[in-house]
Amino acid sequence: MKNIAFVITTPPNSNLTATAINIVTAALTMNISVVGVFFYQDGVLNGSQHLALPNDEYQAHQQWQLLHLKYNLPLHLCATAAEKRGLSDDINDNQAKNVHEAFTLSGLGELVELNVKADRLIQL
Amino acid sequence: MKNIAFVITTPPNSNLTATAINIVTAALTMNISVVGVFFYQDGVLNGSQHLALPNDEYQAHQQWQLLHLKYNLPLHLCATAAEKRGLSDDINDNQAKNVHEAFTLSGLGELVELNVKADRLIQL
Amino acid sequence: MSMLHLVRTSAFQTDDFQQCLNVLQPTDCIVLLDDGCYNLNHDLWQEALNKVALPALYIIEAHAQARAVTLDKEKINTLSLDALMTLICETEKSVTWQ
Amino acid sequence: MSMLHLVRTSAFQTDDFQQCLNVLQPTDCIVLLDDGCYNLNHDLWQEALNKVALPALYIIEAHAQARAVTLDKEKINTLSLDALMTLICETEKSVTWQ
Amino acid sequence: MSITEKSVAILNASPPLSKANAKDSLDVALIFGSYEQAVSLYFQGDGVYQLIAEQQPELIQQKDFLKTFAALEFYDIENIYVCHHSLNQRGLAEKFSIENVQVLNQDDFAISLHQHQTILRF
Amino acid sequence: MSITEKSVAILNASPPLSKANAKDSLDVALIFGSYEQAVSLYFQGDGVYQLIAEQQPELIQQKDFLKTFAALEFYDIENIYVCHHSLNQRGLAEKFSIENVQVLNQDDFAISLHQHQTILRF
């Protein structure tokens, strides 16, 4: 059995992200160990706390939150990419804090560590 | 002399947005009347209050804010596009409010009105 | 060393699939997914068939059906996302063209 | 009615410029800006020269220089962004290929 | 404010089911329609996939916004033009999910597009 | 945690000055380098424009992140491969902004890329 890590670069309102969620879910239900998901570039928008997609559309951000709850899946937002898109978890400025609690802001070094921990790093 | 309106669809960390700002600035300094700028798709990220681009990089969002201050340039964020990217000006939830004050959340109808008011609508 | 190519964009719109074919080796696998499904009807698909044996060419069935892309068993094999995960585990490495 | 075409992407990477050429009329203008500047060295540029007279073909000088794209007066005219704004005012309509 | 007539073309160049461009474009078309503006839709390049019959977006967790095309008529958006060259290149038959689609050859498509005062492309 | 060696290829396919892909890719390369991972850079398609000499990003309000390429050596990133076919297609001479760039023909480029365990493409 392999360990897998994922890099996600697509935003929640793209169907490419639904594909990524389906692939990650397939891995988890097949008992493949997913050591973590690293969100980079526009992918960090998946971790926004205040996303409001129309009710009748696919709620990508909520799906990530569910995977985190159900499988304890680590969800890392690249901190630099997040800052460039207005996302922050600054505890000194409650108004600026807008990263959902299921996600962790991490440095790019976390991507290196995921690559080391995992047998395979899949970019989606 | 013509009236011009602009539609901006590129995010602040793209150099395409610097081009757009330079073109809008050219219009304003030539005394061409710019009736408004409508931000759509990823363009709405320009209106985020908490953007933090690296200090040594071009600060697109601040340039828009300066144009608004100096020329009273109307900056409209498409409300639906903004919600999909976690941007809100909800006065009932101060924590969720993260649209910079230089920008106004507007419906898509504002785009129609800008098109009617302007002789030309330029998409960038 | 065999490589899995995940192709997510249309060759009618971008250069990604052409670039994929430029690095493709005979022992590699290709999976068409998302808008990559449209490549089944692009002239470049013949190049893929020439470079790689048919058993190593796949398309995600649901992604093709969603796009009304007609499947032809002589040009490609269908795959579920579960089967894609298995294929990922069986191959040594992958590159995503998006 | 004459149309101004603002071309912002590379024809080596996307289909946008080809689509622009497919709707181009003899009285239209083309301006290459941003990554569109790379199109000056694409085979398709000859097609633009065949369809439209040289005085109606422009490139934003700073955008070309930033990209080390060598300018050739027999293939294109240079423009500042101020001059682009004037051109926008002088033409009737525009479409942006990005 | 009074709204005067000004002809708008929306040029669709994006495939329907991956990025949000196709949906964002349709939203713009519908709002222009609801303000009773003259709006025409053009489909070129991978944009022609938007109108192809028998798509099943529900198979990929996508809301079937393509059904919204059927609402265009309700908004008096009746000018819908598809580039024949783009269909041909993709091996697509002229089988569409909505009626009243007009397939134009490359020259007619170009000339028709040139009739409008505002062109937006997605 | 201990970090073991695993060979990483970063495949650059984006032009340098418009979208942020080129910069985002370089940031990834540098972080892998700073963690002393074996990382090689590949440039294909419009990605080859990233390395071309005499670019002047400051003319378009762009920070000259291209200068950062000069820092690659400091991070022991010494394997930098450019696809000759892509250069040729674009009419580009082999004049680069940094030294130690290796231009490979299409087959050698492909074979070299296949040597790595992880490939990221931007």
Which characteristics define this entry?
heterohexamer; A: 124 residues; alpha/beta; Hypothetical Protein Ychn, Chain: A; five-stranded parallel beta sheet; 33% helix; C: 98 residues; globular
Report what the structure shows.
The complex is a heterohexamer, with two copies of chain A (124 residues), two copies of chain C (98 residues) and two copies of chain E (122 residues). Chain A has helices spanning 15-29, 60-71, 79-83, 109-117, and strands at residues 3-8, 33-39, 75-78, 103-106, 120-123. With 124 residues, chain A is of the alpha/beta class. Chain A has a single domain (3-123), classed as Hypothetical Protein Ychn, Chain: A, CATH 3.40.1260.10. Chain A is globular and about 40 Å long. A five-stranded parallel β-sheet of chain C has the order 4-3-2-1-5. By secondary structure, chain C is α/β, with parallel strands linked by helices. Helix content of chain C is 33%, strand content 19%. Chain E has 122 residues and is α/β, with parallel strands linked by helices. Chain E has one domain (7-121): Hypothetical Protein Ychn, Chain: A, CATH 3.40.1260.10. Chain E is built from three helices and five strands, in the order βαββαβαβ. Chain E has helices at 21-34, 84-89, 106-113; strands spanning 8-12, 39-43, 79-83, 101-104, 118-121. Chain E has a five-stranded parallel β-sheet with strand order 4-3-2-1-5. Chain E starts with 7 loop residues before the first strand and ends with a strand. Chain A binds chain B through residues 11-13, 42, 45, 48-54, 80, 83-88, 94-98, and chain B through 11-13, 42, 45, 48-54, 80, 83-88, 94-98.
